[in-house]
Specification:
CATH topology of the largest domain in chain B: Butyryl-CoA Dehydrogenase, subunit A, domain 3
Radius of gyration of chain B: 21 Å
Oligomer: heterotetramer
Helix content of chain A: 40-55%
CATH architecture of the largest domain in chain B: Up-down Bundle
Largest sheet of chain B: 4 strands, mixed
Strand content of chain B: 15-25%
Number of domains of chain B: 3
Radius of gyration of chain A: 22 Å
Strand order of the largest sheet of chain A: 2-3-7-6
Largest sheet of chain A: 4 strands, antiparallel
Number of strands of chain A: 8
CATH superfamily of the largest domain in chain A: Butyryl-CoA Dehydrogenase, subunit A, domain 3
Number of helices of chain A: 12
Largest interface: A-B, 57 and 55 residues
Order of helices and strands of chain B: HHHHHHEEEEEEEEHEEHHHH
Shape of chain A: globular
Structural class of chain B: alpha+beta
Structural class of chain A: alpha+beta
Shape of chain B: globular
CATH topology of the largest domain in chain A: Butyryl-CoA Dehydrogenase, subunit A, domain 3
Distance between the termini of chain B: 19 Å
Strand content of chain A: 5-15%
CATH class of the largest domain in chain B: Mainly Alpha
């Protein structure tokens, strides 16, 4: 099938499956997550279509699409304002299960990720171990056929909606800090496991802290061997960094800011889109975004040629997130005081009431606020630059 | 120039710092934030008792005759302690405009109450889609029997839900909706028939509302200042308000830098305090430089306003533009260096950040002020 | 997209790199710089013999049919080795314009010579005070017996002192001096009566001149392209030229980063290699990112030009703007990290810096290109 | 005398004393130094007026002016395009002689600095010791009543015009590296001393390398005690950092760029001064320069109150030089290809021929090139930030 025909097929599906409430959830996204209910509705729609996991190999339930087709699908979804799907199961745990899981683990868990029956969250960071993950102390001590887990995990996105969590835990204090870490799969309804929501700066909850008080987990829930969790996690971290396509996000941001600039007026009562200083600033960001777009295509090209993102994945993470933040800042200037208005109810896709101020500014401040975290999580901008200096420049 | 504080000014600075340090902990502040009003009425009363609310009014009006410097001194402390109480809205803006242009009856009715902390005010001057331009006024005031009849809509009226008195801009002449000429200001009591509010909170924890005016009838005494000359009346008051928010910003940036220095010294990663990482050290040095540069501009601007320097307005524009850039730089890096906890509601860092974001969009964007700055001879 | 190099393109890249590495040392380059011409005529002959000068001409004209990608591949190497020879001026600009619009007699007279390295060209299109706008043309070409009579002045004609042939813009119609319509291009031999040059060197080591035209009489065959339609003729050639200088910039930035990485590893201060300082490490990481981003944009632009993509022109504007920013960032920091020796004439770093500075001002500033970029639908 | 009266007096003097050739030398400055001959002519004119050293105490030949008056004098000189005077004698060695010199040294050297009879250069940096000055190795070994100096100094500005050099030399290898350094005054015509010019990127010579091959210097030429040169130098370094007034430079740059923007035209054939993107960028720099101006006034205020610049001197150095560089970059955009033209002859004040291109662009590229060094010398921007982090923020 030509790419254009494929694109039409995707559009036809989106036209049909993306109901207004789902689209509204996509429009109202103020972070990487959309409204939970709408997200799950969209998950199920994709699952019935067989399109829930385009990045998975066909044997595990993937679509068998080419890299180009997957890119087109992502792009069309984002531009049609489909909600993003949480990455933890589909993008993170899934591939690792395929690489490191036993047949039994794969047979059990993978279909449940596809169907949405299991919602996974990621238990890596700890209060004392952020960028320096190797220093984590949450422990798993062998007790018969089980492990007993004690400690806590923080910044576990979506833990409040999840029924499962994959964790890095310390199973040994011998050797290098990385050497004593294991990767384990835990039921969220285990006794002794408690979830405490963390309210974000926009007033909503996306992150949680998860406490483990003698949580008993069968040893068969290890993914990979005991004490080899670091290797499992490392491939995941690489995935988290290299896997995201920022260009698609930027195109959505560009469309949004153009909408704002074509409705709001500047100090001279012109539309902002006619203000030369504004357009120069927008062009400056857009040119950087364009350069990133072709860099992401180079990465894709490398994948197609059987290579990997390598050095460029730290680059796309740093540049992609920083460009996103610059768009947010520029939006703030256009929306002015309208951006101050906090309407958490109107950010729900189910909201039926009146909104205050221009609809195009509804998400501006929350996006600005929430996007500050994008240069912190998944390897901070500083860590990424350390990586480039060390691994690419061999400094 | 350059300024030295008078003894009274030094005392004001020290006593405000002391009072707030002892009585305005972040925990108390968060408790106040959760209230409907979004602030603590008892604190407001204390501010009045301490004389802060009357500080900048003329002595004949019952004030202490303070100027932009006193406003700056107080507001810098308000910024440092993240004070929620509506000093800017009620005192600087509404109080300032009333004092400058209010007719005797209105002044008598409200001014003493504002200074005593018994009454609150809110300025309603923005209209939807035109945030960058206070001179875009579509709301209309028609001359009617014994006064005026107001119709229109006002957006993002800060402190509106708490206001006893609104000052509202409306067009009395000139059909060009974005013309500076022909805008008038009116005092509208909260219970005026035809006035309705839609209340909400802002991201930085203030209360605000949208104001709807449907045939609100006012008597002739409601006019504040000369008919059609709101822009002239407002210029010095907006200048004072810009000094107020910029002083708040400097206080907030200072607090953020201190918090970041402390945090990075304590926080360990890879076996050492993260304050030992040169990139973070230089980041904090840059934050420091931005803050001190902004502080210099702030002090100079306040001084020039009080001394009627001819380049005072140019300094006001420069100051707001500088605060726009510095506020972003400092608050973004404070969050970045705090990592995850900087993005949560329970630590103060994020609240400073949100307040600086709000100040950044208030009274005109950075670019508007840069463009204003260039319109002066330089 | 995305591009893969053909086998021929890979060979061109590798052989250019190899030839220059072996034959174009910085010392030889500095020796050539000291010559009057500002370059090495024997090198130029070698470039011709290697087929580089003919690379991008059509096969029927005796070339090899290369496009923007081949231009890019060559020029990136020229940038990497700081090649002084006037490939841009003689081949890309003059060769390109002659091929696109030259009349048969002129083509026959010059094109083969340009490709063979025997003749040189220079484009004279800028006028004093109007560097940002090639469409400002006050020089006049009047229709005269059997041809044209040219009068006017042209500024900053790169490679002028070495040129056998000038291509000169002059206005044949339309009295609006900055109108795109009505500009024509003329081939003027260096010995044409009435033509005079004031020669000089540029800061990046090129030779250039100011050109004075006093009643220079040309026959009708001297017209290049359609009368009055220089702008249309020139657009694809300027696009190619922008790719050429931007590729040169990428090569130069690459060389600067490599030199900086090497130097900081060797240079010791405070008992350690300065490459161990995190601030410098991150600076180099940022240099790397800027270079790779620019490279991506460069490759895409060249590819799009060769493939006639409808957004090719938009990419050209984006590319030149990006090179403006990245070239500054990379070269400034290369000097900063080299410290004192980066500011001297004897090390290569400063020469890359000066070439990047020159590229930054050529063919329109960063802001002009950003503004052009926004004129396309985005 | 009121400041305004004083200003008028200064202006009257400048009107008289600043002959066109001297002014031209000031206009044509492309670095911190002006044409040597014109500079010395100006030095002598100031000396006859008794105004050569306003910053010196009156007893040593200063003017007895207030800080304000000194500021006004500096400002008027710069705005009238008077050439800058080299700092090495007047600003650097002079004050140190007053602090550390013997009576004999003061009596001999100070008047010769004032008269211009001695031109000093500074021998601190070495090829292996740039920012890390304490690691210098040029040695002075005691030999009877003399020292024998061996080694070399680099980045010695103006050595080609100087008859004297003050040096930091190693007199001991014991203890901390700083502990074995002495401060010594050397005649440039000593046997074994050789000056090699270093050509700068603009094609002119401002820096030299100075070689010492058994250079014999009387021990009485020590300034301060043996092995205590570091303390002498430290106060000098502080002075070098805190002493410069960047605002005056910036005003001159602002005037220059306004001239350029009022003569050159943009892509739309408007004057650049009418181009809103250009003016926004200029305003951005001008606002930062204004903030620095008031910061420098705060520093001055601290001096007046008997304090010192303290923390703010690193700030003014970093910000002052970086603002200067931003002006340079913006000038380059306005002048376009005109900036490429290299006319070293026309940069001589004595030049009588035609210049190429607009006069306002004559210095643009050379200033841009030479100003890159401003964030390197006198304590690099990185060192200054290290200092702020350590001394001010106590990190």
């Amino acid at each position: 099938m030509t790419d254009n025909l494929f694109r039409e097929e995707v559009r036809a599906f989106l036209e049909r499956a993306l109901t207004p409430d789902i689209v509204r959830a996509g429009e109202l996204m103020t972070s990487v997550f959309a409204d939970y209910d709408a997200t799950m509705k969209w998950h199920r729609a994709l699952h019935s279509q067989g399109w829930i996991a385009p990045d998975w190999p066909a044997e595990y339930g993937g679509t068998g699409w080419t890299l180009n087709q997957r890119y087109i699908f992502q792009e069309e979804c984002k531009l049609a304002n489909a909600p993003s799907l949480p990455a933890m199961g589909l993008q993170m745990l899934g591939p690792m299960l395929m690489l490191h899981g036993t047949e039994q683990q794969k047979d059990y868990y993978l279909p449940r990720i596809l169907s949405g029956e299991d919602m996974w969250c990621q238990g890596y960071s700890e209060p004392g171990a952020g960028s320096d993950l190797a220093s984590l102390i949450t422990s798993a001590v062998r007790d018969g056929d089980d492990y007993l887990i004690n400690g806590s995990k923080i910044w576990t996105s979506y833990a409040q909606h999840s029924n499962k969590i994959f964790c890095l835990v310390r199973t040994s204090k011998e050797g290098r800090p990385q050497a004593g870490i294991s990767f384990i799969l835990v039921d969220m309804d285990s006794q002794g496991l408690q979830v405490e929501p963390i309210v974000g700066l926009d007033g909503t909850v996306e992150q949680c802290q998860v406490f483990f008080d003698n949580v008993r987990v069968p040893a068969s829930n290890l993914l990979g061997q005991e004490n080899q969790g670091w290797d499992v996690a490392k491939s995941l971290l690489e995935f988290e960094r290299g896997g995201h396509n920022f260009t698609i996000d930027h195109k959505k941001q560009m469309a949004k800011i153009n909408k704002q600039a074509n409705s709001q007026r500047d100090a001279d009562n012109q539309l902002w889109s006619q203000n030369p200083v504004f357009t120069a600033k927008l062009a400056d960001i857009a040119v950087d975004a364009l350069a990133l777009e072709y860099t992401e295509l180079r990465v894709k090209g490398a994948f197609e040629a059987g290579g990997n993102a390598g050095a460029l994945s730290s680059l796309t993470k740093v540049v992609g997130t920083e460009i996103g933040q610059r768009f947010n800042e520029l939006s703030l200037e256009v929306m002015g005081e309208h951006a101050l208005v906090k309407q958490l109810d109107a950010l729900q896709p189910s909201y039926q009431g009146d909104t205050i101020g221009p609809d195009c500014g509804l998400t501006t401040m929350a996006e600005y606020i929430n996007n500050r975290a994008s240069t912190i999580y998944g390897g901070s901008a500083e860590i990424q630059r350390d990586i480039i200096a060390k691994r690419v420049l061999r400094l | 120039m350059f300024i030295e504080y008078s003894e009274e000014q030094t005392m004001l600075h020290d006593s405000a710092d002391k009072y707030l340090r002892e009585n305005y902990s972040f925990e108390n502040r968060q408790a106040a934030l959760a209230r409907d009003a979004g602030f603590n009425a008892e604190q407001w009363q204390m501010f009045a008792d301490l004389g802060w609310l009357a500080m900048t009014f003329e002595e004949e009006a019952g004030g202490f005759g303070g100027g932009a410097l006193e406003t700056m001194i107080l507001c810098e402390q308000f910024g440092k302690y993240l004070v929620l109480e509506p000093y800017l809205e009620s005192v600087v803006l509404v109080g300032g405009l009333l004092e400058a242009g209010g007719q005797t009856a209105i002044k008598q009715q409200y001014l003493a109450g504002l200074m005593a902390g018994e009454l609150q005010g809110a300025l309603a001057y923005l209209e939807e889609g035109h945030m960058a331009n206070p001179q875009y006024v579509a709301a209309k005031a028609e001359v009617a029997a014994n006064g005026y009849l107001l119709n229109g809509h006002k957006a993002v009226v800060l402190n509106g839900p708490e206001a006893d008195l609104f000052l509202v801009t409306a067009r009395t002449g000139n059909d060009v909706l974005d013309s500076a000429a022909g805008i008038s200001l009116f005092a509208v009591p909260k219970n005026a028939p035809g006035l309705s509010c839609k209340n909400y909170k802002t991201y930085d924890g203030r209360s605000a509302c949208e104001l709807q005016l449907d045939n609100v009838a006012l008597d002739a005494q409601a006019l504040v200042g000369v008919a059609g000359e709101f822009s002239e009346l407002a210029e010095p008051i907006f200048s004072r308000a810009i000094v107020a928010v910029c002083a708040e910003a400097v206080g907030a940036m200072d607090a953020l830098l201190n918090a970041t220095v402390d945090y990075t010294k304590q926080r360990k990663q890879f076996g050492q305090s993260i304050s030992s990482f040169q990139v973070l050290r230089h980041r904090m040095a840059d934050m420091y430089m931005d803050i001190e540069l902004t502080r210099s501009l702030l002090m100079a601007t306040a001084w020039k306003l009080d001394n009627g320097s001819e380049d005072a307005q140019q300094c006001v524009a420069a100051l707001k533009a500088k605060v726009g850039k510095a506020g972003r730089y400092v608050s973004h890096n404070a969050i970045q260096l705090h990592g995850g906890i900087g993005t949560t509601d329970e630590f103060s860092v994020g609240h400073y950040f949100k307040r600086l974001a709000a100040i950044g969009v208030m009274f005109g964007s950075r670019d508007s002020h840069l463009s204003r700055y260039m319109q002066f001879e330089i």
